[in-house]
From TrEMBL:
It comes from Camelus dromedarius. Keywords: Cell membrane, G-protein coupled receptor, Membrane, Olfaction, Receptor, Sensory transduction, Transducer, Transmembrane, Transmembrane helix. GO terms for molecular function: G protein-coupled receptor activity; olfactory receptor activity. The chain crosses the membrane at residues 12-40, 60-78, 117-146, 158-180, 192-212. Residues 1-210 form the G-protein coupled receptors family 1 profile domain. It comes from the Eukaryota. GO terms for cellular component: plasma membrane. The keyword Membrane applies. Pfam families: 7tm_4. Coiled coil: none annotated. InterPro entries: GPCR_Rhodpsn, GPCR_Rhodpsn_7TM, Olfact_rcpt. This is Olfactory receptor. It is found in: Cell membrane.
Length: 229
């Protein structure tokens, strides 16, 4: 996608389009599940601090990661072939920055409602269900924070969750708008903008969001800026 955006060549091979679609569906699904796993981790850290190491033991972490990767790969394995095999009556122009599922489905010259409904079902399982778990986790976290008497304790709990909440808001806001609605209800321009946002802007901000709340990173950054001055 970056090559096509930067250079004069705006074409992609059929195989390249398949790989791009599979990659985006799998990695996007994995990130949705991992964000829910991270919310559970924050819940354990804030609501069960004395039992955190018992709850989040290495075996459970491995299982949760395996579920995340498995879910994303199943989504891609099922939806990629169904999307790419839709008849397009010779149409080869993708009105988008990349081979994304909604754009490819809109190119079909046959009835694609069955594929759209299956995509919507996967979106419920991979997007909406993890988001529900995230909201439930933060509901318990909010209740626990309100019971904390000291301002320092509340600040510490907020710092534990703030970076994750920011990423969830940025990522899920655009993903839900793209995938949790009927295929023809959003305009192409809106779809293009949101695709660029959650594929370029959000990943670019992730390192800043996560690391700038880390004391060691803050200290190293201050040292680097101090040397330059």
């Amino acid at each position: 996608m970056l090559v096509n955006l930067w250079g004069p060549d705006k074409t992609i091979s059929y195989a390249g389009c398949v790989v791009q679609l599979f990659s985006f569906l799998s990695v996007g699904g994995i990130e949705c599940i991992l964000l829910a796993v991270m919310a559970y981790d924050r819940y354990a850290a804030v609501c069960k601090p004395l039992h955190y190491m018992v709850i989040m033991h290495p075996q459970l972490c491995l299982r949760l990661v395996a579920v995340a990767w498995g879910s994303g790969l199943v989504n891609a394995i099922v939806m990629s072939p169904l999307t790419m095999t839709l008849s397009r009556c010779g149409q080869r122009r993708v009105n988008h920055f990349l081979c994304e599922m909604p754009a490819l489905i809109k190119m079909a010259c046959v009835d694609a409602r069955a594929v759209e409904m299956l995509a919507f079902t996967f979106a419920i399982l991979i997007v909406l269900l993890p988001l529900t778990l995230i909201l439930v986790s933060y509901g318990y976290i909010a209740a626990a924070v309100l019971r904390i008497k000291s301002a320092a304790g509340r600040r510490k709990a907020f710092n534990t969750c703030s970076s994750h909440l920011t990423v969830v808001s940025l990522f899920y806001g655009s993903i839900i708008y793209m995938y949790m609605q009927p295929g023809n209800s959003s305009s192409q321009d809106q779809g293009k903008f949101l695709t660029l946002f959650y594929n370029l802007v959000t990943p670019m901000l992730n390192p800043l969001i996560y690391t700038l709340r880390n004391k060691e990173v803050k200290g190293a950054l201050k040292k680097v800026l101090g040397r330059q001055q």
